[in-house]
Design a protein that fits this description.
211 residues; mainly beta; Jelly Rolls; eight-stranded antiparallel beta sheet
Length: 211
């Protein structure tokens, strides 16, 4: 699939806007929550492309084509990240990026320029679940087949890192982990972003807790 002209136009606009000087991002303190109980995304979020909106108190993304919605607040080095997520499509494709640069997005159809750990539940037409480091197609990604994302079922994600170990759980059950000898941390690796390809996906009840 190719990145659309709409995505390219949006990216040019974002590039112009983000070229303007911005104040330093605030770091998550003791705890950060976003329940999305409002009508607009608000100043805590950076759009890198169209397709993101809040609908009836829930964050919704559709046909985003790997243009994440980044939280502007910096993550702690070690943190627990929790949220609810569900998909309206049999394609699944529930995706989040953690400890990225807070501004990157796909510049071609293959998203190989990520700056984060990319966590995907039901990727590639709901065939595989993945933790990838910097490139979701990399041969060293951690992956497993099953479970599949069920349409409309709400899942509770827990992603936590302490030291060099990154762990991902769904509904309290272990999914995958990465013992990273060179953890992504510091400048360029401090932000969370929700992501998607084409499925209509939903995110809610985000909680970030330093560890």
């Amino acid at each position: 699939m190719r990145v659309s002209t709409q995505q390219v136009g949006w990216a040019l606009g974002v590039a112009f806007l983000t070229g303007c000087q911005e104040p330093a991002a605030q770091r998550v303190g003791q705890r950060f929550e976003d329940r999305f109980e409002r009508g607009a995304l608000g100043p805590d979020w950076r759009e890198t492309g169209p397709g993101w909106r809040i609908v009836e108190g829930v964050l919704q993304g559709e046909s985003v084509h790997n243009h994440p919605l980044w939280l502007r607040r910096r993550l702690p080095r070690d943190a627990r990240i929790e949220f609810d997520a569900w998909s309206d499509s049999e394609a699944g494709d529930l995706k989040v990026e953690v400890w990225g640069d807070g501004e990157s997005y796909a510049r071609q159809a293959s998203y190989s320029n990520a700056t984060s750990y990319v966590i995907i539940f039901g990727g590639w037409h709901n065939s595989v679940n993945v933790i990838a480091r910097l490139d979701e197609h990399a041969p060293d990604r951690r992956q497993r087949v099953g479970p599949r994302v069920e349409v409309g079922r709400r899942y509770h994600f827990t992603v936590e890192r302490k030291g060099r170990l990154l762990r991902w759980l769904i509904d309290g059950q272990p999914m995958l982990e990465w013992d990273d000898a060179d953890p992504l941390a510091g400048p360029g690796h401090e932000y969370l972003g929700f992501n998607d390809w084409e499925a209509r996906v939903h995110f809610d009840n985000l909680v970030i807790t330093p560890l």
